[in-house]
Fold:
Amino acid sequence: MRRRALLAAAFLLLAAGFASATLFALRQPLSLGDYLAIWGLKARALHASGDLAALFSVDPAGEFSHPEYPPLWPILLASAAKLLGRYDELLLALLRPALLTLAAALTCARTRASLPVRLLAASALVLLPYFQTAAYVGYAEALLLVLVLAALLLLESANPTPFTPWAAGLLLALAALTKQEGAVVLVVATALLLHARRWRDAAAAGGLGFLLGVVPWTLYRSAHGVASLADFAPRTFELGKPIRAVAAFGEVALLPSLPWLAGAAIVLAFAPATRRARRPLLAGAAAYVALLVAAFAFARVDVGWLVTWTWDRLALLPVAALLPVLAEAAAEPFQEAAPAEVSGAAPRA
Amino acid sequence: MAKRFWGAGPRGRLLNAPGIARDAGFSATALRAAEAWPARFDARLSVGPLVPADVRERLRRKAAYLLAPRRVVLVEGDGAEVSLTPAPAGSAAR
Structure:
């Protein structure tokens, strides 16, 4: 009876979150913020010209469109528009609920718990503030999230096949071709595989991800004289900038995040088995965040400004990746212990 | 309202989208130019010194979006002028 009630509540929560996110996405055509200045601009240029080099020429001085950003999301938008027969900003907004459905399904699949708990993890994903606003519809993070969650599902698999690391590598390559953060995920995932002595998996996933996701775009970009990162440069390195970035994060986000962070810490504190089982993922999320914070040392623009305008988008990936862990941890104290654990008897062969 | 929204077609909906509607007159002009000018032409956006810097930047981004794949180049206009003119590719000076 309790399980049914929990299942119904989880399903209702998921449906409400998905309906609300879809309404936010579809109540107006794509037209806001970075969609207009970056992703949509490039997609329209690509759709109209059919030439990948249009990604660079459309903003001649490279002042607002970030020509260095990887091209997969504009390519996907332009391809969808080609399939539709016209560049229609409202129809293209349908990509958001489609990607959200995939992300929710992947979260459900990654959660190692009963169905209600898995549905609750998926509900938590669709209810994330990133999806409950019209501001970020048309941005690239939703695609990045789906690719990274799919790669994580494969890398976490208890029954991998010989093709699993290759498929994960391909997904990580696509993630690196979507946003630079995808390349950071590639580095972290490869390092964790190496640490776990999964040499072949690390070589397959890391090698394929690097060769397909990083090399081609770097070469193509360089051939067109476009620098790697407009907002970051080695010569602007300063040790104090990451500290300023953390301080800026504290100023803009700590107060609203505090209850959630405290809740997550409490839930994890009472779930030793989940912490043990999910140590690689927890370590990976921590390493990913540490690398992003460290990257602020090379910021060319004001760090406070950069953090203020990007922190919620940068936080999406680690938070979404950790939702299954939090769901599992929340469920752990309520799980019935296995008979062997209760009696202390040796498990049967 | 829903009927009007769906009946507006892609062009009407775009002109009423939040990121575009704020400068609807300028956006309509840019969309007409996008349909009329050959794709090989760049666009010259003349903005006068009396137009605030943030508005100038907003108009530049909108023009770039609506006229893509053409390059939109900002040039100094007169007074409060805001105008779009076609220019052969590569000839529009900054």
